[in-house]
Structure formats: structure tokens, C-alpha cells
Amino acid sequence: MADRVALYLQDAHDIREAMEYVQYAESRGFEAVWQAESRLVRDAIVPMSAFAATTRRIKIGSGVINNWTRNPAVIAATFLTLDDLAPDRIFLGIGAWWDPLAAKVGIQRRKPLLAMREVVTVVRKLLARQRVTFHGEFVHLDDVELDVVHGRKEPRNVPIYIGATGPKMMALSGEIADGVLLNYLVSPKYNEGAMAQLELGAKKAGRSIDEIDRPQLVVCSVDNDREKALDGARKLVTQYLGQQPHIMKASGVSQELLDEIHQVLTWPATEEQIEEAMKLVPDDVVQMITASGTPEEVRAKVREYVAAGATCPVLYPLGPDVRLMIDTFANGYSD
Question: Looking at the DSSP assignment, which residues form a beta bridge with residue 63?
Fold first, then answer.
């Protein structure tokens, strides 16, 4: 395959069905699959294990777990176990979670940069099979190591990717992570600022931005019927316009449209509110922040994200025909 490309799965499919999609993506040359852990719907680790057990080559990442609800020693043990199942094929994608969900389950997300730095630092040391004593503000370990009695005792190759969106977390990713998992439902223009922040962080660590992998989630709604493809993405775009207006504004969405959406949507939004708000979202906004349309259009849009700094598009399929989307990118996305 001429270009790197990966698959992104959330909770839209039965896990056994998702396993079949991952196997098909592997057969069509996809590099990786990233499994979401969003809302309180689907844990990432169980499907990752299923994918790892039923494939041979494709890499498997969490896209993303959060750094608040699992102890870092447990995170390290979990990903060591996944690496036992699929050696050198596992990525740890980790993010800072989001409110109001975190607050609703009792998590106060204070000092998110420091919390992320401490967790990533300790998890990396543990996966390197080091004995760790660490007393930070959020992480406390006293003479801890991964207690491997049976099996592989060597350091594990599990790259750590931070799911960053804001500029400060982006800079931290450039400083301490192996890679950054760039967010979806942003425009290619958004990537300009993201690359600048990554470079700042990389320089702080004495390295180049080229040493940081930069896969990017891209919503992909593909259909030979263009209007059907656009309508397939409009609902998700509408919800995101309501939930993440700051990101939408940074991507070039007008304040006027955001204000109109907010007059209709509450959180959590009802189906009726979403249906009403969808009428306000024009095709050009859908196509600005997603890869939606015919196969030719979605490949062209993905090229824009790559030109803006993404190293590997991670395609989030919308619509019933996931195999069509996989086939659309089976030979890459170059002209």
C-alpha cells in the first residue's frame, strides 16, 4: 500500500462484527486499528484483546483510554498483557478525558498537564521493566515493578500516544510522547497550530517533530451517492458543534452557526434536538471537518490532512458499508 492508513472503531458495531472488520482491514493492507473508549459505553481493552487474538499483523491501539480512572501501574500491567497477546503490535493511546462526564463520576480533572506527565513517565518506566519509586502530585509508587514470574521478562515495545487537542497538551505530547493521536472533526487548518505546538514541545526535549508519529482520526462517510454520504456525517457533526464549540471555532466554523446550534441543543441532547439542529448545518461545514462524499472526494480530503501534518489517517467509518470505506483506501489515497 502506497500510504499509511488505519481504522478507528467506537461502539457502533457488535464486537464480533468489529473483529471481522479488523480482519478485513488487515487483509486490505491497513496498518493499524484504534479502538475508542468514549462515554460510558465500551471499554477499549476487551475489543483490543479480541482484535489481537484474531489477527497476525495489524497493530492495535487504544484510542484513547484516560489517565484518571486506572492506576498507572494497572495501565502498565494491562498493556504488558496485551503485548503478550500480540508482541510489538500494541499502542497505548491515552487522553485527559472530558467534562461533564468526568465530574459526573467524581473525577476532578485538575492540573491535567501535570497529571498526564506523571502517568506517562511512570507507565513508560514500568513497561521498560524498571523498578519504580515515584512520588508526584497524582502518582505515588513505592518500589514497584511489573511482577513477571512466568513469560517474557524483557522490556516491552509499547509506544505511548497522547490524545491531545488543546495547544498545551499538544506541546506536552511533543515533549514526552512517542506520538500524538490528533483529534477528529477538525479542519486541516487546525493542524497548522497543532504542528507548531508539537514542534515547540519536541525542541524542549531536544528532538525533531519528525521523531513524533502523528496519526489523525478522520471521520469518513463514503457512498457512491454523495448526498447520502453527507447526510451520514451530518448528525455526528451537529453533535460535535454543540459539545466542542471551541474546537469548531478553531477549525473555521462561524460563531453565528455555533450560536444557532446552541440555541437548539442542550447536554445531553435529545434526538429531537439533534434532528432539529441538523437542519442548520450546511454541506460545506460537513465537508470542512470530515472526509465525506464519493470515494474520490474522501480520498482528496484525507490528502489534505496528510499535507497538513498527519502521518497516518485513522478512518472513523460512518454509514453501514464499512467494507466500502476500507476498500476505498486499500490502495492508499495518493493520486
Answer: none
* Residue 119 and residue 27 share a domain: yes
The domain in which residue 67 lies consists of 6-220+294-328
Average pLDDT across each block of 10 residues of the chain; the chain has 335 residues. List them in order.
Answer: 89 96 98 93 97 98 97 98 98 93 93 98 98 98 96 96 96 98 93 97 97 98 95 92 80 89 85 93 94 96 97 95 96 84
pTM of the predicted structure, to 2 decimals: 0.94
* Rounded distance between C-alpha atoms, residue 21 and residue 201, angstroms: 36
- Statement to judge: residues 31 and 152 lie in one domain: yes
Shortest CA distance to 179 belongs to which of 219, 139, 210?
Answer: 210
Radius of gyration, CA atoms only, the chain: 20
Omega of the bond leading into 100 within 30 degrees of 0 (cis): yes
CATH classification of the domain holding 203: 3.20.20.30
